[in-house]
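JOB MANIFEST
job_type = single_chain_structure
chain_count = 1
residues = 185
[input]
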Amino acid sequence: MRKILVFNNLSVDGQFSDAKGGLDWAHRDGKELAEYVQQKRGEVSTFLFGRVTFQMFASFWPTPAGKAASPYFAKVLNEGQKVVFSRTLRRTDWEHTVIQRSASPAALKKFKASAGGDCLVFGSGRLVRALAAQGLVDEYQLVINPVALGKGRPLFAPLAKRLDLGLIEAKAFKNGTVLLRYEPR
């Protein structure tokens, strides 16, 4: 069975994007974090996305600017298998992408039980909440950034029930970010 890992940047007040959907606040001198994540990447073979995050990534990582920003992550994302859960997206030019129409509990459970390596979810708040509600997330990797946004999109709201987590690792970086790795209890 595949493991599903969630990797997201959060502000100290729990937002994963600002009020306009922007993430520029989360990219402050992250070289040390990027190197750490690269070393600890593990056996991730598939990336899971909601439509909004997918389109944001697809418009950047295959481009020369994406490849220049981080050759390693551009290669991993461009060559990796991608699954985007969307009822509205009809086609994509980003190679190695499958569009899955339903993020229903049955579809998500079937996907997790399918053959393949571990899966990583970036952003994709609605997808994260759907996976969390079904108990399908094996690990949350949350990068807490030293900024309070005041408003934006919270990652875990709304949740139908409380999500209890156990700390696996806490790692602080020189730029003030802290990586917290949790597993559901």
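[summary]
The longest strand covers residues 4-11.
The chain is about 30% helix and 30% strand.
exit_status = 0
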